[in-house]
Amino acid sequence: MLAWSLALVASSLLSTPTAASPFSPSSNLYPRAACSGNTASTRNEWCDYSIDTDYTTEVPDTGVTKEYWFELTDVTVAPDGVSRSAMAVNGSIPGPTIFADWGDTVVVHVTNSLTTSQNGTSIHFHGIRQNYTNENDGVSSITQCPTAPGDSVTYSWRAMQYGSTWYHSHFALQAWEGIAGGIIINGPATANYDEDLGIVFLSDWDHQTVDELYQQAEAGGPPTLDNGLINGTNVYDDGGSRLEVSFTSGTSYRMRLVNGAVDSHFKFSIDNHTLQVIASDLIPIEPYETTVLDIGMGQRYDVIVTADQASVADNFWMRAIPQSACSSENDNADNIRAIVTYADTASTPTTDGWDYTDSCDDETDNLVPYISKTVGTAGFDSETAAGTAITDGLFKWTLNSTSMVVDWEDPTLLQVVNGNTTFDTSDAVIQLPTADEWVYLVIDTTLSIPHPIHLHGHDFFVLAQGTGDYSSSVSLNTANPPRRDTAMLPASGYLAIAFQADNPGAWLMHCHIGWHTSEGFALQFVERYDEIAATTDGDALMDSCSTWTTFQSGQSIVQDDSGI
Ligand SMILES: *[C@@H]1O[C@H](CO)[C@@H](O)[C@H](O)[C@H]1NC(C)=O
Ligand SMILES: *[C@@H]1O[C@H](CO)[C@@H](O)[C@H](O)[C@H]1NC(C)=O
Ligand SMILES: *[C@@H]1O[C@H](CO)[C@@H](O)[C@H](O)[C@H]1NC(C)=O
Ligand SMILES: *[C@@H]1O[C@H](CO)[C@@H](O)[C@H](O)[C@H]1NC(C)=O
Ligand SMILES: *[C@@H]1O[C@H](CO)[C@@H](O)[C@H](O)[C@H]1NC(C)=O
Ligand SMILES: *[C@@H]1O[C@H](CO)[C@@H](O)[C@H](O)[C@H]1NC(C)=O
Ligand SMILES: *[C@@H]1O[C@H](CO)[C@@H](O)[C@H](O)[C@H]1NC(C)=O
Ligand SMILES: [Cu+2]
């Protein structure tokens, strides 16, 4: 049980504001594989299923429900030795990891105990398909009203995909106050490995809160950040501590990288070690090797690292380096590091990093989905330009000249349940009425800032991605193009994506830079309007909205962002 002991070692290094262990050994939490037959040398197998199963149409019926109880609280933390206020799930940042097996049902009960900040909340399960379960997508103002302090909400969804992802708050900037954690769905894999090291969160961090920094962002520019964290910990001046990862020579390790930053695009690497990449977001891919991996905000990569460098040194740096043109300035940019050690006790590495050029690349050219798919002919085809605007003296982002502003008290789903068919312009709605048609969307920009574009409720196909003007001469890749849920819109360029309208609901598409989300860089698809009400529990929605509305007016809280 090497993975287990490593997880315990790692968890002791996490910032833990309470005395309680953030990782308690209950059977529910243990990352086990219920399915026998998947061993270190047969990772492509999964009982009666395998890596060859088309998981988009076939899902194991495990009959198992994995249930979690999360409590959100205001906390004081010092993940790099400097104390500040923050918000946490069950007292730790990152919060507890959700484990499930492919095919399980996952139920998460969330209690909002943010009594000091008086913040509402919602929990979004990033990248989870939510097949016909739109109401469990956890986006305030789209699929629910915020959950008021003192109130609870229950989310339920089927794990139809497998791999690595994360959950995070979708209320204001709360995800970057600390309300986030990993999700691991066990299943087959496209390459073998010995041990699973679990989630490795890459994030940026400041000694002021993101709520405090937002004023500066809204005044026109991203604020400079103090630091970054690897799995919730780092050093700053003489304080804090680094994550230490123990390697045994000859063993191969799976790591599940998540970029949970508010505004940092990282290049990730481990000195002298090669990364074998086996999944991008929740899509298993043909394995490829790289030394320096680009990971944009909201993206995930599963990588296998073989401990084959013991003859070079005992200790190596693991690095997450913010790329300047797609990240807030960072005062500790060259020191967001962890230690990989072959020794019994880690000591400070003296290794040099791999060569790289500062840039905002996406891994697109390397990504070949293992389950091959062909994109059909467009039924809906549109182009939308990302731009900026100044509203009431504040900086906003726009798509198609609209900066999204949706109302906490009147989420899209509630409007649909109530039979309202007209939406305000600022709701930024695109209606997709036709079942299963292929939707093509080009997002382009003349501004020199890249954006990670994330779509809810679907994995999208990357048809084209490049710099310069998008025009009909750009060729679209429809033959098994990369598929994922978050891809980069390059600076002064375009991103063309496609997906099938196979999932009724109100689905958000937005830039995953925290400031930009709050500044309105978003639109929503109202997909198959006529079928949405039938898959929605209108009473539960209205109950929680009524609790929220009473709270919001009682506390005179004024919404001052996009609402998502
Ligand atoms: C990172 O933190 C998560 C959550 O506590 C834990 O499960 C995981 O094992 C940690 N990863 C490493 C590499 O220590
Ligand atoms: C998604 O849900 C629909 C409606 O219940 C169902 O027909 C379809 O099979 C589901 N997809 C998968 C992969 O289970
Ligand atoms: C989180 O905290 C809740 C309430 O305190 C507790 O019931 C639950 O077991 C904890 N869950 C995890 C995964 O730590
Ligand atoms: C959430 O709490 C933070 C910290 O107290 C505060 O700055 C912010 O205004 C609150 N946001 C909302 C939307 O209530
Ligand atoms: C380790 O990596 C550094 C930087 O890439 C390189 O200069 C050095 O030669 C490598 N050492 C060995 C023994 O491969
Ligand atoms: C863009 O905005 C115009 C004017 O509001 C609207 O007619 C059009 O449908 C919008 N297009 C998209 C793709 O949102
Ligand atoms: C429908 O929505 C529009 C735009 O949000 C709003 O102005 C109108 O009052 C709503 N109508 C009903 C009947 O709720
Ligand atoms: Cu953006």
From TrEMBL:
Q: Where is the signal peptide?
A: 1-20
Write down the required cofactor(s). Cu cation
Q: Which residues form a coiled coil?
A: none
Listed GO MF terms: copper ion binding; hydroquinone:oxygen oxidoreductase activity
Give the enzyme class: oxidoreductase
Q: Which domain of life is it from?
A: Eukaryota
Q: Which UniProt keywords apply?
A: Copper, Disulfide bond, Glycoprotein, Lignin degradation, Metal-binding, Oxidoreductase, Repeat, Signal
- Write down what this protein is called: laccase
Q: Name the source organism.
A: Anthostomella pinea
Organism classification, top ranks? Eukaryota, Fungi, Dikarya, Ascomycota, Pezizomycotina
